[in-house]
Amino acid sequence: MKNAVGREIPENIPGLNKIRPFEGAFAYQPTGRLVGPKIPVNVPRTEKTLKSIDQAIEATGLRDGMTISFHHHFRNGDYVMLMVIEAVARKGIKDLTIAPSSLSAVQDCLIPYIDRGVITAIETSGIREKLGDLVCSGKLSKPVIIRTHGGRARAIESGETHIDVAFIGAPACDTYGNINGVDGPSACGSLGYPMVDAAYADRVVAITDNLVPHPLYPISIPQSLVDFIVVVDKIGDPNGIATGSLRISNNPKEQVISRYAAEVIEYSGYFKDSFSLQLGSGGASLTAAKFIKEKMLKQKIAASFGVGGITGVMVEMHEQGLIKRLFDTQTFDTPSIRSLKENPCHVEVSASLYANPHSRGPIVNNVDFVILSATEVDVDFNVNVLTGSTGRLMGAPGGHPDTSAGSSVSIIVLPLIRGRRPMIQDRVYTVVTPGETVDVIVTDYGVSVNPKRKDLIDNLRNSSLPVMKIEELQRKAYQMTGIPTPPLPPSDEVVAVVEYRDGSIIDVIRKSK
Amino acid sequence: MKNAVGREIPENIPGLNKIRPFEGAFAYQPTGRLVGPKIPVNVPRTEKTLKSIDQAIEATGLRDGMTISFHHHFRNGDYVMLMVIEAVARKGIKDLTIAPSSLSAVQDCLIPYIDRGVITAIETSGIREKLGDLVCSGKLSKPVIIRTHGGRARAIESGETHIDVAFIGAPACDTYGNINGVDGPSACGSLGYPMVDAAYADRVVAITDNLVPHPLYPISIPQSLVDFIVVVDKIGDPNGIATGSLRISNNPKEQVISRYAAEVIEYSGYFKDSFSLQLGSGGASLTAAKFIKEKMLKQKIAASFGVGGITGVMVEMHEQGLIKRLFDTQTFDTPSIRSLKENPCHVEVSASLYANPHSRGPIVNNVDFVILSATEVDVDFNVNVLTGSTGRLMGAPGGHPDTSAGSSVSIIVLPLIRGRRPMIQDRVYTVVTPGETVDVIVTDYGVSVNPKRKDLIDNLRNSSLPVMKIEELQRKAYQMTGIPTPPLPPSDEVVAVVEYRDGSIIDVIRKSK
């Protein structure tokens, strides 16, 4: 059967319980109730600190077939996942599902444990490098489930993903289990992802290299959610967690794209005092901030809030009074980790508050503008941020579909051509963000507005932007690259499903031939 | 059948589903899972603000037989409960259970709605004045359920109390439903009680007299939990919410009791740097702070945290560096409302984090000393804070049983004699806090230590305190008052049950004759 973005979704996929094809960004009306963890109990003055991860695994009752979760706030500096999986393997436990908030290149170290059957299923946002290739080769017995940040929160809260044990890397943890991410040698900033895990997992283990006296301040995840504490030498490599400030790009192509994106915002009709903003962490998205800032100063307006992955660029605007509040699910660089600790109006939020569609209103629903990158787009405005043009797993939905659906004006920035390949396809290899939620595509050769946004088309007439139909933009690319040869068709076997934020299947990844 | 504090608990109580007698403070091992609310959904840019409470009642689908909740942070200044019940009555809805976090004297205004069958059941912490008398007279068809603050959070999270609609009086609310209690003309400080309601109710309505632009800062209850907003003229009377500072007592009896309580702390063996502390809001409890402070300054030590209902007395110690953190579920006076807004280490916490026994560790579990008042105690160290010696409903368990169970040293302060009545009974009229969790009873005529606390008995030998057996203390009282005549026995009909924090029945209130 074909879903609402025209993708063929098998009615049955071995290893998955139920398949609900994507029917439209807001079509699904959920029923039922949110779930809760096992009712816990704790007598006063219980000692929560255990001697080792091995001991914690015993204490939690972890056994074959269970699901364990992790967070990816340490990015490529993460030591926690490997430490836990090594300990699990030592105990002879097998057939685990891992449900991290995302996976980075560093997690290629997990491959031997997939080979040995310790890990047999994965639910994640991102998956890449050798681990991505392994998935595409059909190595796992169950399809990987790829989710957005909001979708992961939804899946956990609704019980679709049941976490038996959450292992939380804790940059600071006190002796009764209060945790934050802003203190200590492995500070990563916001703990927006594991906030959800801690609230819903049956057992919660904090793993820290920075045990401090009770009570910690500030508290991101409270003691009432943490069962056990393990102290280890190092939970992460600071160089992999965050180094310096994510920089504004000097790449001339990105300069053009950024200037166009800022002009889209200026003329959109939504650029007025107290507007709100999300910027991705890509170069063009960050660079756009420079131009937006100039326009804000000129018009003497300030933003009511900025949200998302927070970077030094947004922190600077906050500290200059140009963005009044920052809502932070993930902190991307050193200046923003410092800001989260110091600035009271830079507020940590959970992935659920940020982007969960099954909520009484996530923060993405209040965003006016979002600027997002893409690996490729298509003439239906569908966006791929997960696979390359030939199907290789190399990215993550992250908050892309969430914020694109929530925002008033969703702006996708990408170069018209990368290498020798055009970036506007007839069909993206994988649909991650549906075209109905994408408003403007900005390239270095021109700007296209989704035909359903007549208001934006009208408003942008007043700008000097090279606005054109998406087909025209595609033609421009083809003039330079020629018509690309279509990628080799994959096999029929599904190795991963791409869930839309509401839990429906928007696309599948098939085994590479 | 008799429970673990020797009270006769009927096996069946009409109107209640299951009766589980109290078996000991930590005897009950819960099973099962926490529950969740109906899965909500909200499309971007939904208008949450409705024109009236009547409209909100329609929007929530409230109907006969449902349960609605409120918070009591406005104390005797609350306008919200009456406004909602009036609107409910206008709609002809009947047979509601109200489940406020507590009831104050001002809620006598609800009596006509009980007479008319609009309200037919009550779950609360406190109940007093004419409403209390009404309950004792057997007017309600179901017994009132009286809970501790931690027990209420437990009941809601476990699904024992299912809230269909929570109505939350919001001193500040933004246009997408973010709420705090520290801003606006009806500022009350912490919103620790309705934080729990908002997370578990099927529908949540914010009622505010202070609608502000999105996004509010700080946020106590986030937009993701709030369905609807109603703006009214006034949600409360500031004079009833908090007036000035709760004062240290000059009453000579209370001075003696306070000095003794402070000396118990000093010699207990737990009085060292980084100790932790809860003080009740009663005069003797607050006055003890003065003496504790002197001892802290002398010994050059500071407390790691203070918790509970926060008062100006604790705020002053915090601002002087004597208490490093304040955890605040309920803010009692004007200086502490100001402090919650201004002091970053004065932190708002939910009633669940504060005191829920079915948690991986509420804050009460970390408390070293708590000083609590009582209406009467008995020779088994059981404490009554709910009824007078003749059974009249006049108080509330509040956090008393929670913090008494959690703390290392639980100190009960009360005068040996009130009026012409001795305050140490053979049996308290109603057991609210079981003697096994009470460590020291301090009166103006002497101090008694629970015999099971041999460590405290030993340590207090070094003090100059008049320590004596509880029977001896009782004898002293009788010498002055004579042996009191026992209260008239009530009828058999149960009009209220007193739940211990774990959901078991520790005592019942019977219909007055």
Structure explained in plain terms:
Two copies of one chain form a homodimer. With 513 residues, chain A is α/β, with parallel strands linked by helices. Chain A folds into two domains: 49-241, Glutaconate Coenzyme A-transferase; 252-486, Glutaconate Coenzyme A-transferase. Helix content of chain A is 26%, strand content 21%. Chain A has 15 helices and 27 strands. In chain A, strands 2-12-10-7-3-4-5-6-26-27 form a ten-stranded mixed β-sheet, with helices on both faces. In chain A, α8 packs across α9 (283-299). Chain A starts with 32 loop residues before the first strand and ends with a strand. The mean pLDDT of chain A is 96. At the A-B interface, β1 of A face β1 of B. β1 (33-38) of chain A pairs antiparallel with β1 (33-38) of chain B.
